Amino acid sequence: MSAVKRNVAVLISGRGSNLRALIQSTKDAGHPARIALVLSNKPDAEGLEIAKAAGIETVVIESRGKERAAFDAEMDALLRGKGIEYICLAGFMRLLTTDFVQAWYGRMINIHPSLLPAFRGTQVHERVIESGTRFTGCTVHFVSPEVDAGPIILQAAIPVPQEATPESIAAAVLEQEHVLYPQALRLLAEGRLVIEGQRVRIT
Ligand code: GRF
């Protein structure tokens, strides 16, 4: 008899390479999580095809022109209706309301392409290069109401070479993301992450 798996939804807006890594990593029978649903706020998100090819249910809830609260309420109802326990944001380019974030606090994680708390927000790699910092990387963190500011779960660092371009850093960081995000999801689904204020203890 196999153990019950935790139901995870992955929220996307675009390419879906992290989604692909999460799907791949949760495939084995002994994994504590299963990607039960992929939700996109964009009907043309490429990641939807990745999900479909893997036989995972997909839903599009268009966010364009919708009130933030109404959109989040619609998502919340859907996720609860489907028995979702955890949410992974993977390139989901829509700001979430405080109500939604609080309702899922401790059960929703995100990946960001910098070593937080440095370089929150967008245009990360351009700003990394301008700043002259020697290292960058990626961070998986719990989602809190303030954007890119929740408790940090895991990080991976890479050097920023002299000749780096935003594109070269993006590629090197992305490679790390695809390793880091599956590790973090596994820890989450195993119930091994304890939030203590701004810190996360791995048990
Ligand atoms: C990644 O760089 C991730 O860190 C950021 O958005 C990008 C998503 O890429 N949050 P993908 O859609 O997973 O390929």
Helix content: 25-40%
- What's the gyration radius in Å? 17 Å
- Biggest sheet, in brief? 7 strands, mixed
Give the helix/strand class. alpha/beta
Query: Spans of 5+ residues with little confidence (pLDDT < 50)?
Result: none
Bound molecules: 5-O-phosphono-beta-D-ribofuranosylamine
The dominant shape is globular
Write the layout of secondary structure elements.
Layout: E1 6-12, H1 17-25, E2 33-40, H2 47-53, E3 57-60, H3 68-81, E4 86-89, H4 98-103, E5 108-112, H5 124-131, E6 135-142, E7 152-159, H6 166-189, E8 193-196, E9 199-202
Parallel strand pairs: 1-2, 1-4, 2-3, 4-5
Antiparallel strand pairs: 5-6, 6-7, 8-9
The structure holds 5-O-phosphono-beta-D-ribofuranosylamine (GRF).
Tag the structure with descriptive keywords.
single chain, 203 residues, alpha/beta, seven-stranded mixed sheet, two-stranded antiparallel sheet, 6 helices, 33% helix, binds 5-O-phosphono-beta-D-ribofuranosylamine
